[in-house]
């Protein structure tokens, strides 16, 4: 099975911690040169400094806010001009704040639309020409199992994930002939800062202890545990590789069997 990404460049967004950072480590371990992107320069520098270089990879980082589409396009365009085109793109950013759909302010939906979809479309237009020229593109959207089954108390997130998933599915059909695949990878509950803060917020709003909330969540996962970020990143690494060339337009859950639909 060919998992070799030597000679390829990967842009990994939302990569200063959590799932994005794990994806960056995985892609680098497969030989890719990786540029990690998020807002916090110090953390990005740390992530970048710990990526594998044993196959001659050259890594870098971009500190930019995905909510600022103009700055995002400028930063990635400059990086592309100076360092070369990207063939792999992990489209990832922070999740919207939790809460019921009907209570969310319209502005919360607008912000999430900007951060999740406008930023993605803006980056797509920067990255696409290079992928087409290479005849190789792998676009991996980090979404959520809510693409398949809405999650209670994540109203804005559920809405946005469905929008991005449909954007991705449409693109998959449009771009396949150019050797570009577009897939969604859906994390179940995975041990990252995002999960810790969700548990804290649920505990606070429900008056239960962190231990009780954690136990309740684990009870919904047939595997009986949270995922490790590396388990998610393994799936991204495979889908980014030449071996996954015929997998396109899918949404793959990495959730220990917790999603209640097929
Ligand atoms: N972990 C889970 O159990 C789980 C389950 C389902 C879905 N998800 C979703 O999967 C995605 C990644 O999850 P995670 O657990 O790795 O989250 P995380 O630990 O909160 O990490 C989010 C990453 O996105 C970056 N980011 C946030 N806002 C940004 C912005 N405006 N512009 C640029 N970068 C931004 C953060 O870095 P900076 O703060 O430095 O910008 C960080 O690197 C999220 O959308 C999350 O909702 C996670």
TrEMBL record:
<protein>
    <submittedName>
        <fullName>3-oxoacyl-[acyl-carrier protein] reductase</fullName>
    </submittedName>
</protein>
<dbReference type="InterPro" id="IPR002347">
    <property type="entry name" value="SDR_fam"/>
</dbReference>
<dbReference type="InterPro" id="IPR036291">
    <property type="entry name" value="NAD(P)-bd_dom_sf"/>
</dbReference>
<comment type="similarity">
    <text>Belongs to the short-chain dehydrogenases/reductases (SDR) family.</text>
</comment>
<dbReference type="InterPro" id="IPR050259">
    <property type="entry name" value="SDR"/>
</dbReference>
<dbReference type="Pfam" id="PF13561">
    <property type="entry name" value="adh_short_C2"/>
</dbReference>
């Amino acid at each position: 099975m060919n998992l070799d990404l030597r000679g390829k460049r990967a842009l990994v967004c939302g990569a200063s911690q959590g799932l994005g950072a794990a994806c960056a480590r995985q892609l680098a371990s497969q030989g890719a040169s990786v540029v990690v992107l998020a807002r916090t320069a110090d953390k990005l520098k740390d992530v970048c400094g710990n990526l594998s270089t044993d196959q001659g990879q050259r890594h870098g980082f971009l500190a930019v806010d995905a909510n600022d589409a103009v700055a995002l396009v400028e930063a990635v365009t400059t990086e592309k001009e100076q360092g070369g085109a990207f063939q792999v793109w992990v489209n990832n950013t922070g999740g919207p704040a939790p809460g019921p759909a009907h209570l969310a302010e319209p502005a919360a939906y607008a912000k999430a639309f900007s951060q999740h979809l406008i930023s993605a479309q803006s980056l797509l237009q920067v990255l696409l020409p290079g992928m087409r020229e290479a005849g190789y593109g792998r676009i991996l959207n980090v979404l959520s199992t809510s693409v398949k089954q809405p999650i209670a108390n994540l109203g804005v997130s559920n809405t946005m994930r469905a929008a991005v998933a449909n954007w991705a599915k449409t693109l998959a059909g449009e771009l396949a002939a150019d050797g570009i695949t577009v897939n969604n990878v859906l994390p179940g509950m995975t041990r990252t800062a995002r999960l810790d803060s969700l548990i804290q917020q649920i505990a606070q709003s429900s008056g239960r202890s962190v231990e009780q909330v954690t136990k309740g969540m684990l009870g919904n996962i047939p595997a009986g545990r949270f995922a490790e970020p590396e388990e998610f990143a393994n799936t991204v690494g495979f889908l980014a590789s030449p071996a996954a060339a015929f997998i396109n337009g899918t949404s793959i859950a990495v959730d220990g069997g917790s999603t209640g639909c097929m």
